[in-house]
Automatic annotation (TrEMBL):
Record family assignment: Belongs to the cytochrome P450 family.
Binding site residues for heme: C167
Keyword Iron-sulfur listed: no
Organism: Gigaspora rosea
Official protein name in the record: Cytochrome P450
A GO MF label: heme binding
Coiled-coil intervals: none
PROSITE patterns: CYTOCHROME_P450
PANTHER family in UniProt: CYTOCHROME P450 (PTHR46206)
Cofactor dependency: heme
Record's keyword terms, sorted: Heme, Iron, Membrane, Metal-binding, Monooxygenase, Oxidoreductase, Transmembrane, Transmembrane helix
Chain ranges passing through the membrane: 12-34
Length: 176
């Protein structure tokens, strides 16, 4: 009995460790992506630096809070564009749980038990109706024009999921 309990404890620790590693890796990956874009896109440095200086003056040199960081709308738009531009090809897998199959409005059917994923690359870079003009080009301030912060859940930006599957840590991930 003690062995079973010990085994169950090890499984629980293993699961918790896996969840921690996955979540930490996700944050690190997002951080790495937009920092790399910032290094590569020097034309935005001065404007983003000026915005940060203005917010810093408003804080009187005190530590920045999440609310202060949220005021950096240009930086937020840059981060969102970076995540949009470098998103995975497919993501958000869903398993069909219908008894036999699920039929989409266009007639396409997904059999029960089959897993389907969304094509992020197409949604994020090929559809002008969703992304605006020139969706295949990086434009750091694309999301300023729409008043669309990186944490806002929208059909044109699914990096953090949507609905009941939305990422609860998206604000932390953006301000990381």
């Amino acid at each position: 009995m003690a062995t079973t309990s010990n085994g169950a404890t090890r499984v629980l620790y293993s699961l918790l460790y896996s969840i921690f590693i996955i979540k930490y890796f996700s944050l690190f990956f997002l951080y790495f992506i937009y920092k790399l874009d910032l290094v590569e896109r020097k034309q935005y440095w001065q404007e983003l630096y000026q915005e940060a200086q203005e917010i810093n003056k408003q804080c009187n040199g005190n530590e920045l809070t999440f609310d202060n960081i949220a005021k950096m709308v240009k930086l937020n738009s840059f981060v969102k564009e970076s995540l949009r531009f470098t998103s995975p090809i497919v993501a958000l897998p869903h398993k069909c749980i219908s008894k036999s199959y699920y039929t989409f409005a266009n007639g396409y059917q997904v059999p029960s038990g089959r897993t389907v994923s969304l094509n992020f690359r197409d949604t994020n870079t090929n559809v002008e109706e969703l992304q605006g003009q020139n969706p295949t080009e990086f434009y750091a301030y694309r999301h300023l024009e729409r008043n669309s912060p990186a944490t806002k859940l929208e059909c044109n930006f699914l990096t953090f999921g949507d609905g009941k599957h939305e990422c609860p840590g998206r604000a932390l991930a953006i301000s990381y």
